[in-house]
Amino acid sequence: MTIYPETENPLNLYKLLIGAVVPRPIALVSSLSADGIPNLAPFSFFTVASANPPVICFAPMFRGADGSSKDTLQNIRDTKEFVVNIVSEDFGPRMNLTAGEYPPQVNEFEVSGLTPLASEAVGAFRVAESRVQMECRLKEIVEVSSLPLGGSLVLGEIVRMHIADEIVTDYRIDPDKLAAIGRMGGPTYSRTRDRYEMERP
Q1: How many angstroms separate the CA atoms of 180 and 126, rounded?
Q2: Are the C-beta atoms of 69 and 62 separated by less than 8 Å?
Q3: 151 is in which domain, residue-wise?
Q4: I need a labelling partner for 65 at 20 to 30 A (CA). Which of 100, 107, 149, 160 fits?
Q5: How much is the pTM?
Q6: Using 50, 70 and 90 to split pLDDT, how confident is the model at 57?
Q7: Residues whose CB falls within 8 Å of the CB of residue 1, separated by 6 or more in sequence, listed in order
Q8: Is residue 122 scored above 70 in pLDDT?
Q9: What DSSP letter does each residue of 142-186 carry, written as one string?
Q10: pLDDT tops 90 at residue 63
């Protein structure tokens, strides 16, 4: 099977991409609207961009139905800050509740039952249940495509990193204690328990 993106339905390309690029870590991003309304939403187009300075990035997509942007993206444009909370198995179902399409005035902390926790350096709340929380200031937004299912790459510099004491030793995070989950295609998720090692050459 060979795919020619220029002639393919973007929805089919999306399905192929989320099935091939797996597993994807999940950024549960908390932000505040310009009016101070908390927002919480998960994004699986997410990774590290730099360690010096520490920069992480995620890519909110434009909705396929109408091409509208996510509340998270607008909030970050307005406030220039956000928090990325790493998702663990125990609160995965509550994270999933934040993935719904809610109007901007809805507080997804209330929808999900997750606990807002005041940040130190930014206005957006952290998720108390998350074992790793990264307070970020916006570094740059790269507009990749404004078409439906297009996206923007949001780069944020970490200004505070909160890690649960019980999961870290000598700056190494215990993956069993973090128990992070990842996104596969469709409604499927993965755990991070089945691992093996290969030494780098």
Answers
A1: 17
A2: yes
A3: 21-191
A4: 107
A5: 0.95
A6: very high
A7: none
A8: yes
A9: EE---STT-BEEEEEEEEEEEE-GGGEETTEE-HHHH-BEEE-ST
A10: no
Q: Reduce the secondary structure of 85-146 to three states and give it as a string.
A: EECEHHHHHHHHHCCCCCCCCCCHHHHHCCCEECCCCCCCCEECCCCEEEEEEEEEEEECCC
- Residue 43: inside a domain, yes or no? yes
Mean pLDDT of 121-136: 98
Cα torsion angle, 95, 67, 135, 46, sign: positive
| Mean pLDDT in residue range 168-179 | 98
- Give percent of the chain above pLDDT 90: 95
Q: Which residues of 170-193 are buried (b: 16+ CB within 10 A; e: fewer)?
A: eeebeeeebbbbbbbeeeebeebe
Domains held by the chain: number = 1
Residue 22 has pLDDT above 90, yes or no: yes
Specify if 12 maps to a domain: no
Residue 2 lies in a domain: no
List all residues 6 or more positions away from 35 whose beta carbon is below 8 Å from its beta carbon: none
Interatomic CA distance for residues 63 and 87, integer angstroms: 23
